[in-house]
Amino acid sequence: MRRRDLVRSAAMAWGAAAGAGVVRASPTAAVPPSAARAELLMAQWIGGRPVDLTGIRLDLSELVENGHDVPLRVEVDSPMTADHRVTALSVWAPGNPQALSLEVEFGRFNPRAEVAARIRLATSQRVTALAALSDGRVRRADVSVVVALAACVDGS
Amino acid sequence: MTTPHGPLRVRVHHGQPVVAGRPLALRVSIAHPMVTDHQVDAQGRRLGRNILTRFECHGADGLLFAASLHPAIAANPSLQFWIRPHQSQTLRLRWEGDHGFVQEHRYALDVQEG
Question: Residues A27-40: pLDDT tens digits?
Answer without folding.
Answer: 444 555 677 899 99
